[in-house]
Amino acid sequence: MLTRVVKRVASVLGYAFLAVGCLLLLFIPYALWGTGILTAHSQAVLHREFIKELHRTDRTVPPAVLHPRTTTATSPPAVAPAMADPAIGAPAGLLSIPAIGVSMTLVEGVGTAQLRDGPGHYPNTPMPGEAGNVGIAGHRTTYLHPFYNLNELRPGDPIVITTVQGTFTYRVVDTVVVPPNDVAVVDPTPIPELTLTTCDPRFSASHRMVVKATLAASALAVPATSARSSATTDPPRSSGTGTKTPSHAPPVTTALAGRSGDWAPGFLWGAGMAAVAALFWTVGRRRRGWQRVATLSVGAVAVLVVMFFFFGAIAPLLPASF
Question: pTM for this one?
Answer without folding.
Answer: 0.75
